[in-house]
Amino acid sequence: MNILLTGGLGFIGSHTATVLAAEGHEVVIIDNLCNSQRQTLDSLESITGKELPFYEGDVRDAPLLKEILQKHHIECVIHFAGLKSVAESGTDPLKYFDNNVGGSIVLIEAMQATNVKKLIFSSSATVYGEPQYLPYDEDHPLAPMNVYGRTKLQVEEILQDLSKSDLDWSIVCLRYFNPIGAHESGLIGELPQGIPNNLMPYICQVVSGKLPHLNVFGDDYDTKDGTGERDYIHVMDLADGHAAALEFVDKHKGWEAVNLGTGIAYSVYDLVSAFEKSSNQTIPKVVKERRIGDLPIYYAKADKALVMLGWKAKRDLQSMCDSSWKYQEQLLKLAK
Ligand code: NAD
Ligand code: UDP
Fold this sequence. Notes:
By secondary structure, this protein is an alpha/beta fold. It has a domain at 2-180 and 233-261 and 301-313: 3-Layer(aba) Sandwich (Rossmann fold). It has eleven helices and 13 strands. It has helices spanning 11-22, 39-48, 62-71, 86-91, 93-113, 147-165, 199-207, 235-251, 268-279, 303-309, 317-335; strands at 2-6, 26-31, 54-56, 76-79, 118-124, 170-176, 178-180, 214-217, 229-230, 232-234, 254-260, 266-267, 285-288. The strands form four sheets. Strands 3-2-1-4-5-6-11 form a seven-stranded parallel sheet, sandwiched between helices. A two-stranded parallel ribbon has the order 7-10. Strands 8-13 form a two-stranded parallel ribbon. The chain is globular and about 55 Å long. The N and C termini lie far apart (41 Å). Uridine-5'-diphosphate binds next to helix 7 and strand 8.
């Protein structure tokens, strides 16, 4: 198929591009580079052995989107482009509603105008909010606890209403849990700008000597070792999940939301131990106060993805840490 990836040079989009290109799909990318780098395109081309059409542009640019959709005979769009900092979404909510919700509306309108009606949307487990029960299944009440999560839920709702108004649409909203890890080549991975907010990129910077120690945000939760537990998922498993969703939207109409997680929760200390093993280094850590807004534990019920998409995560925590470390080593070599 001819597929447009919005935000395709970002962390999840770039890994998904490698899987789709390997499956023989024609991949076209639009990205405004607000949280990614152009060199990722070179890495993608060396991994895939293909030239991938790339547009440096914004999803809020309707004429550009229509031009790309028509010129490349796009059949399906995977909409990764979005801003993802929970903290920034609270301090600058309009920026988040404009980019994430406004950007999605412009994209959907452009797709409608050009009769492209297959869409996979990057949603998030944050749409669930405070767990009423665990694991979260797709029927769990939706009550996001932050602006970022609300932008994701709003887009999901817009897409659901759209699919009811026009039965030609095929839409899958993928609710990602905690993607980490990197491509097995070590050529692409997660490249956060500034000081990272999330656990894995923070650990990577500690191990690379850029930050002195890991701050552990609370060790007194009611969890197995007192630290927060999350459902970490290898980004290449997540990429495979998109390939499975693509087959699904090609054959089914309507709207669906599907969790992409492993169904297993690991603690901060589990991740630290696994990363210490990968890197053969000790990670210095300091226990700090709990981070405001953090949930003690959440993880996915991953059954719907298996039944509906025939997809299941295959890679374990050690493989997530090994691949992240391989990417870090590559970055360290380049910096020398
Ligand atoms: P990322 O920041 O690495 O990638 C997003 C890409 O979109 C970046 O390359 C950025 O430059 C681009 N972009 C942002 N706004 C744009 C715009 N208006 N026009 C064009 N390009 C734009 O993030 P990611 O981790 O790859 O996440 C991809 C998607 O998945 C996001 O929508 C994010 O909210 C969602 N998501 C991510 C996670 C996670 O933990 N990484 C979890 C759940 C959901
Ligand atoms: N965490 C931590 N130190 C950090 C970053 C995160 O102890 O520097 C903890 C955080 O409190 C949570 C877990 O690691 O329990 C995962 O946090 P992350 O921000 O990666 O994911 P999210 O909380 O958004 O699911």
